[in-house]
Amino acid sequence: MQITPIFKKEIVSESGKLTAKQRRFAYTGIVPILLYMGLFTLFPILWAVVMSFFSYTPIREGSWFLGLGGQNPFVGIENYIELFTGTGKPAEVFRLAVRNTFLFTALVLPMNLIITLPLAVLLESIGERFKTLFRAIYFLPTISSSVALVIIWDYMYAPGWGLLSIMFKAVGLVPPKSWLQDPNTIYFGVPLAMLCVVIAHVWQDFGYNLVIFVAALQSIPKTLREAARVDGANIWQEFWLIVVPLLRRTVLLTSVLTVISSLQVFVIFQLLTRGGPKNQTQTMLLSIYENAFRFANNLGLSAAMSMILFIIILILTVTQFRILRTEWEY
Amino acid sequence: MNKRFLFLLSLLVTMSMLLSACGGGAAPTDAPSTDEKVELRVWGHQAPAFNAADQAMFDAFTAQNPNVTIKYETFPWDVFIQTIQTSLPAGNTADVILIPGGYTCRYASGGQLLEVPADVMTLDEAKEVFYAAPLGGQTCDGKLYGFPAEYNIEYGGAYVNPALFEAAGVAYPPKWENWDAVVADAQKLTTVGDDGVMTVAGLHYTNSDQLFTYFLAGILEQGSDYFAEDGKHFNFNSPEAVATIQKLMDMAQTDKVVDPIIFNADSEWVGESFAQGHNGIGILGSWYAGDAKLAYPDLEFDYVTLPPMMGSDYKFASVGGWGYVVGKSTQHADLAWKLAAFMGADEANVLAFNSTSGTVPAMKSVAADPKLLESAPFIAATLPLLEAGQYQGNLTDSDQLSYEIVYPTILDAIQGNLTAEEAANSIHESANAMVDAAQ
User: Fold this and answer.
1) Residue B167, CB-side half-sphere exposure with 13 Å CA sphere
2) Residues in A touching B264 (Cβ below 8 Å)
């Protein structure tokens, strides 16, 4: 039986191309979005790229063309060379910030996955009513205001009278003199202040990955797990040999998202430690912000910092995709 | 007409509208006639006392000039700084801006601000009217760019808590003859818990602004200068600089009047810490008294004069203070200067502003007016010191120097991780690298 394409004429013309009316409709829909994206996304990115090659600050008068040139001269790759080899304080602090950002990410990623994956499996194994309740509880910090959460953690970490110090004393332990501001307390190369921020961030952020893992677990066909059980697999083997391999794509997704978000964390550092003590929690984004908006002469330098952060995120994301790439579906 | 042409035309119109919205203002026009309706825009930072004082002056100004309306826009501190950083060069700022002292020369030298017209006030006249330190904050390359509204002074005064003095058996109110007497009282006020954690700092001086202020003041009190001979670079590793850092270190490490790990800018900030009874003597500007009275109405405290720390005479550097300037993009320069002068150069209005905002006056005659102390008694402790202040000078980037270089390095030394010489050399090198990078 042949189906008559009654709407064919309204969808495409005889030649297979859109009609003039359809083109108009398409342009009307696309152009505002393109303009918006162009002005507020593409142009700022290009502007940052260009600025990174200039000794630029909006305070100085440049040429007629976007203030570039004149007192904001072209310096080629000098900003990048300064960041990699310079002896100025912003460059020194930035190099430290790169190291701290990687350290933060390296701590957050495994801690997040170690908590969220088993927790998701546990959540998936309980009744539907409790599952919804616990999922909401665990997701609550994620949707709460970051500022409010930081204030809570600030009270937790207060020296002497903070909740953590009181709890330590209650069980006979000696709490650190200051959780967030002691530069001399370092465990296995990780400053105490950094550990404190990592814990607060993971607590705030793990709800995202938890929800993703729960959704992924629900999509694993029950037949695979049942077949494993029939073959004699125990719960542990079922988890490691069936569930974890089938979650590989989800692990990739959550890893990429966690790495990207960890590299871009700002609020918790800005409000909890402001990069201290002794720049031990100074991150790339804090450095970019401070040089762009707090200090006067470094907008070009901070644009170069942004480009380096962009390249780092790009390389890490591509690498993660390549390492964890899977070729099969279920 | 070709539809593609129409489409491109509409695209261009849309683009031009968007870009013109992002662009700067038009060139100033001639002064309006007295009947013409004019709206002046004024920008300031969000501070209840400042804003209330400004609003009262706007009301008075518009009553005298019925053709003028004033649109007063205030921003949180960070937003305000970012806004003027981007808007001043773009030429789309308010007509009058209440700007922090250290920022005026930065924008004036970039051609973003108008010079005060000679018929409004000359620099020589201003020197007669205002103290040197706040006036320096509104002056650039020997030209006057604004009227200082207040005198920023973080030096020479401290908050004292009578309850803690009484509990420690220390005479109150304190009358210290020298710095050693301050430290001696501070030692008695200091309390350490059973767990070894300091619960009350006798003397809290390890805040960022205070360490920066006292570092510069210590150098000046010893008769030295922190600028190198060229007036741009710094001389931060002089014997006087090392001695000042050593003094700041000794108070924490030898006299143990503060634990710098617990008490610093990011933990137990001096103002809040004082209000909660966590320090007996808190070094901070008198400006905090108004905030403390509002936030902690039951708090008993006084603001007293401190002796010089490193010498026998008071000498200190000040960032200047807030001041009224006029942006180059104003459409009504004459009216803008009339308003700025009304707020910043009229004695009665300045007295009202300083009384309402609780700020130290930049105008000499207002500082001498007994009415000032009736409404702002806490200022009394700093009034004898005002002539001893000098403008801090062109520090290239004051914020970077104080918050990224001087404060963290000295705090590091006080916390026991650097010697005074190492700290001085580190500050010297970083500060001069900052100057070189800016040139």
Assistant:
1) 14
2) 181
Say whether A293 and B429 touch across the interface (CB within 8 A).
Answer: no
Residue A35 lies in a domain: no
Which ipTM was obtained for this model?
0.76
Domains: count for chain A: 1
8 A C-beta contact, residue B213 and residue B154: yes
DSSP alpha helix (H) spans, B77-147 = 77-90, 101-108, 123-129, 132-136
Sequence-ordered alpha helix ranges (H) in B115-161: 123-129, 132-136
Q: Do B266 and A181 touch (CB under 8 A)?
A: yes
Instruction: Give domain B36-152+320-391's CATH architecture.
Output: 3-Layer(aba) Sandwich (3.40)
* pTM of the full structure: 0.82
CB contact under 8 A, A296 and B14: no
Cβ–Cβ < 8 Å for B154, B269: no
| Residues of chain A contacting residue B14, judged by C-beta atoms under 8 Å apart | 35
Q: For chain B, list residues with pLDDT below 70.
A: 1-35
> Does any domain span residue A142?
yes
Right CATH for B157-316+396-438 from 3.40.50.2020, 1.10.1040.10, 3.20.20.80, 3.40.190.10:
3.40.190.10
**Residue A197 maps to a domain:** yes
Nearest to A295 among B110, B268, B399 (CB): B399
Can you tell me the mean pLDDT for A252-266? Answer: 90
Q: In the prediction, which pLDDT does B29 show?
A: 45
Task: Categorize the per-residue pLDDT at A66 as very low, low, confident or very high, splitting at 50, 70 and 90.
Answer: confident
